[in-house]
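So, could you explain the following?
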Amino acid sequence: MRLLPLIYIFIFGVVLTVALLFLDLPFWLIYVVIIVVYVVLLVLPQMYTIYKSNNLKKIERFLEKNKKKPIFTYPLAVKNGNREEIISSIQLILSKYKQPYMQEVYKTNLALFENNVSLFEQRAKQISKEPLHTYYIAYAEARKGNFEEAHSYKGKLPVGWMPYAIDAIIALEKEDLSGFRIASEQCIRLASGIQKFNLFYSFDWMEKEYAK
Protein backbone atom coordinates (compact mmCIF):
# COMPACT_ATOMS: atom_id res chain seq x y z
CA MET A 1 0.00 0.00 0.00
CA ARG A 2 1.28 3.47 -0.88
CA LEU A 3 2.31 5.87 1.92
CA LEU A 4 -0.38 8.51 1.32
CA PRO A 5 -3.38 6.20 1.94
CA LEU A 6 -1.68 4.95 5.11
CA ILE A 7 -1.31 8.54 6.33
CA TYR A 8 -5.00 9.19 5.66
CA ILE A 9 -5.98 6.02 7.54
CA PHE A 10 -3.76 6.98 10.47
CA ILE A 11 -5.26 10.49 10.64
CA PHE A 12 -8.76 9.02 10.46
CA GLY A 13 -7.87 6.67 13.33
CA VAL A 14 -6.63 9.56 15.48
CA VAL A 15 -9.76 11.63 14.79
CA LEU A 16 -12.00 8.64 15.52
CA THR A 17 -10.18 7.95 18.79
CA VAL A 18 -10.62 11.56 19.94
CA ALA A 19 -14.31 11.48 19.00
CA LEU A 20 -14.85 8.26 20.96
CA LEU A 21 -13.03 9.68 23.98
CA PHE A 22 -15.41 12.66 23.96
CA LEU A 23 -18.28 10.18 24.16
CA ASP A 24 -16.76 8.92 27.41
CA LEU A 25 -16.79 5.31 26.23
CA PRO A 26 -14.83 2.60 28.09
CA PHE A 27 -11.22 2.34 26.97
CA TRP A 28 -11.58 -1.33 25.99
CA LEU A 29 -14.50 -0.49 23.70
CA ILE A 30 -12.55 2.33 22.04
CA TYR A 31 -9.63 -0.05 21.52
CA VAL A 32 -11.88 -2.69 19.93
CA VAL A 33 -13.55 -0.14 17.63
CA ILE A 34 -10.19 1.23 16.45
CA ILE A 35 -8.82 -2.27 15.77
CA VAL A 36 -11.95 -3.20 13.81
CA VAL A 37 -11.73 0.00 11.76
CA TYR A 38 -8.06 -0.59 10.93
CA VAL A 39 -8.79 -4.19 9.92
CA VAL A 40 -11.63 -3.04 7.66
CA LEU A 41 -9.53 -0.31 6.03
CA LEU A 42 -6.21 -2.15 5.74
CA VAL A 43 -6.85 -5.89 5.61
CA LEU A 44 -10.20 -6.30 3.86
CA PRO A 45 -9.19 -4.46 0.64
CA GLN A 46 -6.19 -6.78 0.29
CA MET A 47 -8.28 -9.87 0.99
CA TYR A 48 -10.81 -8.73 -1.61
CA THR A 49 -8.04 -8.36 -4.19
CA ILE A 50 -6.60 -11.79 -3.38
CA TYR A 51 -9.89 -13.71 -3.43
CA LYS A 52 -12.67 -11.72 -5.11
CA SER A 53 -11.39 -9.07 -7.53
CA ASN A 54 -12.03 -9.48 -11.25
CA ASN A 55 -9.69 -6.64 -12.20
CA LEU A 56 -6.55 -8.28 -13.60
CA LYS A 57 -4.59 -5.01 -13.62
CA LYS A 58 -5.40 -4.39 -9.96
CA ILE A 59 -4.43 -7.95 -9.07
CA GLU A 60 -1.16 -7.58 -10.97
CA ARG A 61 -0.34 -4.36 -9.10
CA PHE A 62 -0.94 -6.16 -5.81
CA LEU A 63 1.31 -9.03 -6.88
CA GLU A 64 4.07 -6.65 -7.97
CA LYS A 65 3.96 -4.86 -4.61
CA ASN A 66 4.18 -8.18 -2.76
CA LYS A 67 6.48 -10.15 -5.05
CA LYS A 68 9.09 -10.55 -2.31
CA LYS A 69 6.76 -13.24 -0.98
CA PRO A 70 7.30 -16.43 -3.04
CA ILE A 71 3.59 -17.26 -3.11
CA PHE A 72 2.98 -14.06 -5.11
CA THR A 73 6.02 -14.50 -7.37
CA TYR A 74 4.55 -17.62 -8.94
CA PRO A 75 1.53 -15.97 -10.69
CA LEU A 76 3.83 -13.28 -12.09
CA ALA A 77 6.15 -15.97 -13.42
CA VAL A 78 3.16 -17.63 -15.11
CA LYS A 79 2.26 -14.27 -16.68
CA ASN A 80 5.78 -13.88 -18.05
CA GLY A 81 5.42 -17.30 -19.64
CA ASN A 82 8.99 -18.52 -19.16
CA ARG A 83 8.99 -22.20 -18.16
CA GLU A 84 12.31 -21.99 -16.28
CA GLU A 85 11.12 -18.92 -14.37
CA ILE A 86 7.88 -20.71 -13.44
CA ILE A 87 9.78 -23.79 -12.24
CA SER A 88 12.17 -21.60 -10.24
CA SER A 89 9.24 -19.77 -8.57
CA ILE A 90 7.64 -23.09 -7.58
CA GLN A 91 10.92 -24.37 -6.14
CA LEU A 92 11.15 -21.16 -4.12
CA ILE A 93 7.66 -21.77 -2.71
CA LEU A 94 8.62 -25.34 -1.79
CA SER A 95 11.72 -24.14 0.03
CA LYS A 96 9.78 -21.44 1.92
CA TYR A 97 6.46 -23.05 2.83
CA LYS A 98 6.75 -26.42 4.56
CA GLN A 99 3.06 -27.04 5.31
CA PRO A 100 2.22 -30.56 4.02
CA TYR A 101 -0.71 -29.43 1.85
CA MET A 102 1.34 -26.65 0.23
CA GLN A 103 4.11 -29.16 -0.47
CA GLU A 104 1.63 -31.59 -2.03
CA VAL A 105 0.02 -29.04 -4.34
CA TYR A 106 3.17 -27.26 -5.50
CA LYS A 107 5.15 -30.48 -6.01
CA THR A 108 2.29 -31.51 -8.29
CA ASN A 109 2.50 -28.20 -10.13
CA LEU A 110 6.26 -28.60 -10.42
CA ALA A 111 5.87 -31.98 -12.12
CA LEU A 112 3.30 -30.43 -14.47
CA PHE A 113 5.60 -27.62 -15.61
CA GLU A 114 8.50 -30.06 -15.89
CA ASN A 115 6.23 -31.95 -18.30
CA ASN A 116 6.62 -35.16 -16.31
CA VAL A 117 3.11 -36.59 -16.69
CA SER A 118 3.73 -39.84 -14.77
CA LEU A 119 5.18 -37.95 -11.78
CA PHE A 120 2.37 -35.39 -12.09
CA GLU A 121 -0.21 -38.18 -11.79
CA GLN A 122 1.63 -39.77 -8.87
CA ARG A 123 1.79 -36.50 -6.95
CA ALA A 124 -1.82 -35.63 -7.80
CA LYS A 125 -2.91 -38.82 -6.04
CA GLN A 126 -0.95 -37.76 -2.95
CA ILE A 127 -2.85 -34.48 -2.49
CA SER A 128 -4.72 -34.94 0.77
CA LYS A 129 -7.59 -32.48 0.40
CA GLU A 130 -10.52 -31.96 -1.93
CA PRO A 131 -11.32 -30.58 -4.40
CA LEU A 132 -7.71 -30.26 -5.62
CA HIS A 133 -7.12 -34.00 -5.18
CA THR A 134 -9.85 -34.84 -7.71
CA TYR A 135 -9.07 -31.83 -9.90
CA TYR A 136 -5.43 -32.77 -10.43
CA ILE A 137 -6.26 -36.46 -11.00
CA ALA A 138 -8.75 -35.40 -13.69
CA TYR A 139 -6.05 -33.11 -15.12
CA ALA A 140 -3.55 -36.00 -15.18
CA GLU A 141 -6.03 -38.31 -16.93
CA ALA A 142 -6.65 -35.63 -19.56
CA ARG A 143 -2.92 -35.20 -20.11
CA LYS A 144 -2.58 -38.98 -20.56
CA GLY A 145 -5.36 -38.97 -23.17
CA ASN A 146 -7.81 -40.85 -20.95
CA PHE A 147 -10.66 -38.50 -21.71
CA GLU A 148 -13.50 -40.69 -20.40
CA GLU A 149 -11.69 -41.03 -17.07
CA ALA A 150 -11.06 -37.28 -17.00
CA HIS A 151 -14.77 -36.62 -17.61
CA SER A 152 -15.67 -39.07 -14.85
CA TYR A 153 -13.50 -37.24 -12.31
CA LYS A 154 -14.69 -33.88 -13.63
CA GLY A 155 -18.25 -34.82 -12.65
CA LYS A 156 -17.13 -35.04 -9.01
CA LEU A 157 -15.80 -31.48 -8.95
CA PRO A 158 -17.80 -28.61 -7.41
CA VAL A 159 -19.62 -26.26 -9.73
CA GLY A 160 -17.33 -23.38 -10.66
CA TRP A 161 -14.17 -22.91 -12.68
CA MET A 162 -12.63 -26.37 -12.15
CA PRO A 163 -14.85 -28.44 -14.52
CA TYR A 164 -14.27 -25.91 -17.30
CA ALA A 165 -10.52 -26.06 -16.69
CA ILE A 166 -10.64 -29.83 -17.25
CA ASP A 167 -12.73 -29.29 -20.40
CA ALA A 168 -10.07 -26.88 -21.64
CA ILE A 169 -7.24 -29.37 -21.01
CA ILE A 170 -9.17 -32.16 -22.75
CA ALA A 171 -9.84 -29.90 -25.75
CA LEU A 172 -6.17 -28.93 -25.99
CA GLU A 173 -5.05 -32.57 -25.82
CA LYS A 174 -7.50 -33.28 -28.66
CA GLU A 175 -5.98 -30.35 -30.59
CA ASP A 176 -9.38 -28.63 -30.54
CA LEU A 177 -8.23 -25.03 -30.19
CA SER A 178 -11.73 -23.60 -30.57
CA GLY A 179 -13.06 -25.84 -27.79
CA PHE A 180 -10.06 -24.95 -25.64
CA ARG A 181 -10.76 -21.24 -26.00
CA ILE A 182 -14.46 -21.61 -25.23
CA ALA A 183 -13.83 -23.71 -22.10
CA SER A 184 -10.95 -21.53 -20.87
CA GLU A 185 -13.04 -18.37 -21.26
CA GLN A 186 -15.84 -19.93 -19.18
CA CYS A 187 -13.30 -21.07 -16.59
CA ILE A 188 -11.75 -17.60 -16.28
CA ARG A 189 -15.19 -15.97 -16.10
CA LEU A 190 -16.13 -18.07 -13.07
CA ALA A 191 -12.85 -17.55 -11.20
CA SER A 192 -11.87 -14.50 -9.16
CA GLY A 193 -8.90 -12.94 -7.41
CA ILE A 194 -5.41 -14.35 -7.89
CA GLN A 195 -6.96 -17.61 -9.10
CA LYS A 196 -8.49 -15.72 -12.04
CA PHE A 197 -5.15 -14.04 -12.79
CA ASN A 198 -3.33 -17.37 -12.66
CA LEU A 199 -5.85 -19.13 -14.90
CA PHE A 200 -5.91 -16.30 -17.45
CA TYR A 201 -2.17 -16.39 -17.96
CA SER A 202 -1.89 -20.18 -17.58
CA PHE A 203 -4.28 -20.67 -20.49
CA ASP A 204 -2.45 -17.99 -22.46
CA TRP A 205 0.82 -19.85 -21.81
CA MET A 206 -0.73 -23.19 -22.82
CA GLU A 207 -1.97 -21.77 -26.12
CA LYS A 208 1.46 -20.33 -26.91
CA GLU A 209 3.09 -23.68 -26.08
CA TYR A 210 0.54 -25.41 -28.31
CA ALA A 211 1.41 -23.09 -31.20
CA LYS A 212 5.13 -23.92 -31.05
